[in-house]
Amino acid sequence: MTANGWLQIGVYLLAIFAITPPLGRFMTRVFNRERTWLDSVLRPVERLIYRVTGVDDTHQMRWTEYAIAMLLFSVVSMLVLYGIERMQRWLPWNPQAFAAVPAALAFNTAASFTTNTNWQAYSGESTMSYLTQMAGLAYHNFTSAAVGIALAIAFIRGIAQREKDSLGNFWVDIVRCSLWILLPVCLVGALVLVSQGVVQNLRPYDIVTTVEGAKQTIAQGPVASQEIIKEFGTNGGGFFNANSAHPFENPTPFSNFCEMFCIFAVSAGLTFTLGDMTGSRGHGWAVWAAMAFLFLAGVTTAYWAEGRGNPLLTAAGADQAATDSSSGGNMEGKEVRFGIANSALFATATTDASCGAINGWHDSFTPLGGFVTLVNIMLGEVIFGGVGAGMYGVLIFVVLSVFIAGLMVGRTPEYLGKRIEAYDVKMAMLVVLVFPLTILAFSAVSSVSATFGTSSILNPGPHGLSEILYAYTSGTGNNGSAFGGLNANTNWYNVTIGLATLIGRFMMIIPMLAVAGSLGRKKRVPPSSGTFPVTTPLFAALLVSVILIVGALTFFPALSLGPIVEHLLMAKGQVF
């Protein structure tokens, strides 16, 4: 660990702090349909879209109608992507003449990209045509992100409004999110990445001769346009198998910082939107502070673990100390262009959010470094989290925290003037329980079957269990990153991880919207001496505690058999 590394981490968090108010306020104006500086250009486009599609933009939806519209949109989008993958052999913009994607892999990919997971059991540059990448995958990068943000806004509306049985209009929300927020930023961001050397073309792959006389294929394509939305929409998924470690996706330290910045930008901004729309900016900042604390705890642990290196190598005589000519520490699986600090920071940010983009191989991290990435997802990816998903996920924990605080003082719990009642807590607990049930059930079955489960493990022992556990955690948490030592491109893993992505997205959204609808119908009650304030450091501490306790109670036994025991074996000097 170096002072320079800590400085880079500090600058990153300051940048996220700085973007939170302006972006959050802008999103408030967009979703409240207030005037913005983009209206003169985008309002005519918006009206045209409604006219062509027959959408009544004045219609307000109950939570059930909002959920049905979201589900129908997602199902149709998933089927279209599945069809494109299966027929890409006969479709245009396929200069490499890639064959149709196999059925199980096509299902996995369609489910993954529809749910904002972007898990990839394939190598992008050798599997997907340019048309599939653009019209299929990049399209879903925009729409799945827009759906997540729309759902978060619907939840915030439920908290903010009084005695209303509606949460807005789903179609209006995703159109305005796409036109006002995602497209403008990605248009500018793609040009910034191109200026750094990120590739953007439709040329066939180049075949070159190396200095040794061998033939090498140089893959390329429309990379920059997909790279920016995969980060800003917290989608993850790489055009290339090496993801953001590939120089065509992430060529410079500046592009690396821009990509990390984009991962947290919208999620951080939504905390300000929460405070803005509910009339309690202090509450928004309290939620931001809780997220920032958990982020700092994770990145500190990961940086320390990777900077310390592997004691087995130290015992063998390797020098892992940081010097002027060496970064020191555990450099296995990391890009020398970015070093340990930026690898630990990127890994923490991408697993805090439901992004899944990587600039280093998580499978090569030390046991504690890999533990951080795994736990970040297991906590529900509410540490800023994915665009929208992080916000409505943390709001479920807020409801539980307020409920617990109410029990402590023996009063009916209240949240921003709304009473939290039995129905709200039951729906919140459904959200919390679906997540670990899916992860642990699929992991248990896979870890005891040599036929279709453990046969895909390249590293037996506790690390192999971590690889299986990470795969289902990443899928259910809609993250998409992986411990690369698991061969997940099998029928079993393609189907079950695909199912996990769908369960982790939609089975958690339905009860979440039910809570939002319930809160929206309630009348506000004036605060009293027994009301637990949600704008104080005490509330932020309680929120952090609830998140950690729920995560520890549900996942500690599994973690103790994976990364924890692996760390203890490493500390004892045993090979694992």
Describe the overall structure:
The chain has 576 residues and is mostly helical. The protein has a domain at 21-279. Helix content is 63%, strand content 2%. The chain has 17 helices and four strands. The protein has helices at 3-31, 39-53, 63-87, 103-114, 130-160, 170-196, 224-232, 253-278, 281-308, 311-315, 339-352, 367-378, 389-409, 422-447, 462-476, 491-521, 537-571, and strands at 206-209, 215-218, 414-415, 418-419. The strands form two sheets. Strands 1-2 form a two-stranded antiparallel sheet. A two-stranded antiparallel sheet has the order 3-4. A hairpin with a 2-residue loop joins strand 3 and strand 4 (418-419). Helix 3 packs antiparallel against helix 16. The protein starts with a helix and ends in a 5-residue tail after the last helix.
Q: Strand content of the residues, in percent? A: under 5%
Mean pLDDT: 89
Sheet of most strands: 2 strands, antiparallel
The percent range for helix content is 55-70%
- What is the general shape? globular
Question: What is the count of β-strands?
Answer: 4
Runs with pLDDT <50, length 5+? Answer: none
Radius of gyration: 23 Å
**Helix- and strand-based class?**
mainly alpha
Order of helices and strands: HHHHHHEEHHHHHHHEEHHHH
The spatial strand order of the largest sheet comes to 1-2
Total number of helices = 17
How far apart are the termini?
A: 25 Å
